Known about the structure:
By secondary structure, the protein is α+β, with helices and mostly antiparallel strands. It starts with 7 loop residues before the first strand and ends in a 5-residue tail after the last helix. The relative contact order is 0.07.
Amino acid sequence: MEVKVNDYFEPVTQFSVVPGIVRVLYLNERCDAVVLIQLTDPPRQPIGLGLEELRGSVIAGDTKPAKIFTPEFLLVLEDDLDEEKKRERDEKWNIIAPLIDSDYPGQIFAPGEMGRMVGARAVELGMQRKSIYRLLYRYWINGQVRNALLKNYAGVGVPERKYDPARPPGRKPRYQGIAVSPTKLIDAVDKRCIRVGYSLFVGDKTSTITSAYVEMLRRFYTAKDLSKNPESSGRLLPDSEIPSFRQFDYWGKQFFDEVETERGRKGTRKWLKDCRPLSGTVRDWLRGPCHQFEIDATIADIYLVNGYSRRMLIGRPVVYVVVDSFSGMIVGLYIGLEGPSWNGARQALFNAFTSKVEFCATNGVTIDPEEWPCHHLPHHIYADRGEMLGKAAEGLATGLNIELGIAPPYRPDWKSMVESRFGILNDLTGIRWLPGGVAAREKERGERDYRLDATLSMKEFTKIIIQCVLHYNRFNRQPDRLTQEMMNDGVDPTPVGIWTWAMENGHVEPNNHPDELVYLHLLPREQATVQKGGVLFRGMHYVCDVAIENNWFAKARSRGVWSIECWYDPNSSAHIWIRGDNKQFIRCDLRKSDSKYADHRSDEIFDLLEAYRQTPPAHKRAELESRVSLQEEVDEIVNSAMAERNEEPAPATKAEMIGRIRENRAAERLKERETAPVPEGVRIGPPGQKAETALDRSENYAGARSAQVIDMLKRLRPGQN
């Protein structure tokens, strides 16, 4: 049973070792210790348990892992925070930072250390101990990230506050500087009346919402003085005793969904027809794997083509590689067209932080989880200035508690680990000998342009690099990385061997955080549109259960499309992520009709669809010429028919022109049947039989009883002439 920092647990039975829902703050495999904090309000002091004791309780079924949604105030990007909020957060962080980053990991949780350290810090800053405790508890309970110190406005206020009707909240209403009667405070009886009144509009019993409001007032908020005149009309109650129109409109829309309203007003049949939804070294100070990652990018020496059309040259790809500094394991990979920048680097980091089984399967490689067991967040990342020196990357520190290290210019030795991997991958792939590979020297005049030989698509080149990475992780031997402990255990000096040994012996200290925070800070985001057929993103439609349950597509069909923010993985177009009402991430899958794009990269599909949307100049010219020729042929046919018509004598009267339409139609139909070609082998009648002419049939139609037959047909088909 694996227990990680920031995991949640909750009791199942009364024999559980945890008192309630708890979060793991710290663990130490060697000391068999784990520190937990209970998620209560007000917070309580962290508690210590034996790690094996907790594992045993989970295995016995007395305790189980819990799923806790990330608080809404944590789901925010660094760019979305104003300077005032950042300043307040950083001031709070500076107060507790020396307590968190102490002399050794977990020092504050040692017996007697928390009170001593907090007391010393309070004396140093001249503030109360309880204020420091309050910040520490907020930091621990909300995931041990710096953004945990942001203000949580969702917890502000008193739920279900009861107001005094004599003293309503808010400003007193005034008209031209004179105080007027305040609006009535809505109670449960008023809400029932509003529901009944608004249902008249929903059920199409009234023409407008205003009419429904007036009808509600007439029914429930009028009084009659029966003592004077029983037949007198109703008298409207004072303004302070009736709901306002704004209250009526607001609560009516709360009671009745927009789709339900439209369905009721249009009727089920019309709604279903028009509105229904369409469905020495750096290793000397490292504690183990995941302590520090290094990232770098290079432009590959090969030209690639589009995955849909091998004649569409897309240029040289950029290869991003993320390496674990302790084991030498290549933990992340991204191949795309983004130049060395944060947009490309974050996609490589996302790949490093997620499972590789699905990533490899998307690119046509089947692996077991043990062949590439890397899906963890580090504590430190080292990178070049070009990739990570930006405001967007600051969110890694504040949102995921990842410290950034920037190598100085012209100092690749500061991250030599990842720099050397590019040479290894180039040697393994033999990239310069692949179709479209760049030669070692400049192309001389008269030589064949190697760009014309480009054959591989982005997906195929990615598949080659994946196979090279798997080979490297498994067979690249580096004995100098072995410690004495590893040598005693007979560890294979390969990246996979070192990583596996570290995991089995508790040396991997992943920076564990919810998937929502990883998606938020690392996946690229763009605008999509909610339409009647799904969530449209880059020419592809996506659907999800939340959108269907909330009738998004029906609303888009009735009131028009609207924009929505989405997050996507450039390596696969099978899924995108959107945020629900509580800012939690929701995965949307490709619509069935667009499932043909699922196995391709989103940028390739986007480029292809954009290319097909453009009309070639030759096609435009041919279409224009065809339209001109078509119009000429139509005019020629019409003019010829007009000339023949003018040669024939005109009828004397209008009745003579239109009075024999039925007979003329019958004669033309018979003529058409006689002149129609008969397929070979079809029997048309006995040999020698004389064909009856149209004139004969017209003259002998119904015989002597023609008038009786016509009269009978008129009675059977009334209205027909």
